[in-house]
Amino acid sequence: MRILVTGGAGFIGAHCVHRLVREGHQLCVVDNFNDYYSPQLKEDRITWLRREVDSFDLHRLDIADSSGLLELFEQFRPEVVLHLAAQAGVRYSIERPDVYLQSNLVGFLNLLEACRAFMPRHLVYASSSSVYGANEHIPYSEKDNVDHPLSLYAATKKANEGLAHAYAHLYDIPCTGLRFFTVYGPWGRPDMSPMLFAHAISEGRPVKLFNYGRHRRDFTYIDDVVESITRLLDKAPARSLTWDGSASTSYAPWRICNIGGQRPVHLIDYIAILERRLGREAVLEFLPLQPGDVLETCADTRALEQLTGFAPRVDLEQGLALFVKWFRTYTC
């Protein structure tokens, strides 16, 4: 297939490009290489990809550039669009909401308009487990209410799901939204806990544990995420004449799907694994709950299993061992 991947120099994006090129697909990769975190890490991911799988086209383009995006769609004519570009980060959205509106709303609208003009077979886009917000039903099901986001980042992702539904209904664009749960692994983002904690432990600096370390997170290893995505790409939703009113599906060609590890872990236990793998004891600094944080995440992945026959299976011990092996190589 001809697949356009936005955010292809990002963490999940780079791993998806690696897998999809190896499977023989023709890829057009888009990224704006912004400086939310070190652009060098993104450049290094591309260098890794060029070394591993060189046969993809890279375009340094911001999805907020509507004319540039339309021109790229016209040239490449993607059959499938995998949209992973976004301004990430819950806490940064409190400081710079304007950045999130531009990338996550304007950029996503531009992408939907490009899809309306050129009609790919399937638009698969990144949502987030953060949309569950104040929901206290565990595990999180796609059928749960998501009307109470706790951060602007979560609100933009919820808005993406609504925009996608409108375009699916109005223009018959098959759309699948993926709610990712704390993805980790090699080439991960430096603003997320695996990299933050590994650096702090290695350098003898305090590990900051908000909510006094009582958070529980459903960690999902990157290979499981990529496997889930690749299996979903050719499973575009269709219009339904027998829609049951579920919040995760629709009469329109639209669906939502959780991608998570299904095994929430206390942060203290998570740090203990990192300590063993790094061979150093962590210095812990216990701090109050931060604005925008949720207390616990846990994915119900039955919909993913029904659609693909697959559910994430890499446990945290195994996944962190693989992460630390890469971390030592990349940082030393």
UniProtKB/TrEMBL annotation:
InterPro entries: Epimerase_deHydtase (IPR001509), NAD(P)-bd_dom_sf (IPR036291). Keywords: NAD. The keyword NAD applies. The keyword Plastid does not apply. Residues 3-235 form the NAD-dependent epimerase/dehydratase domain. PANTHER family: EPIMERASE-RELATED. This is UDP-glucuronate 4-epimerase. It comes from Halopseudomonas formosensis.
